[in-house]
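Reopening this one. Same input as before:
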Amino acid sequence: MNGIEIKSFDKADETRTFEANGWADVVMVGGQPVARGHFQPGWRWSRDVKPIAETELCQVSHLGYCLEGRMRVTMSDGSEREMAPGEVVAIPPGHDAEVVGDETCVFIDFGEVAEYALRK
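Same output, byte for byte:
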């Protein structure tokens, strides 16, 4: 990279739709993908992304910031945490997740999203 690179999610390089209840806009910046997910009420990873990922649980490591809404993440060991607006989170692989409440959860993800919700 030779200079400053600026991208906008409003002109995303790619939009990945889930089976239902949302989508993720992806931009490539600094050679890395960054995603802005829109997880609508009723969204659940095991219902809306699992058919795309073809894995039992989400195997992506997420590092991000919750802009709006709430999301509950359940790890394979049964432990749960809930994120809310203004919170920064790190989520390891091996989890399910679901929107909590009736507000869309908007999440900026700087994690390993190169293959997240990418249809084969």
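So the earlier flakiness isn't reproducible anymore. For the record, The chain is about 5% helix and 45% strand.
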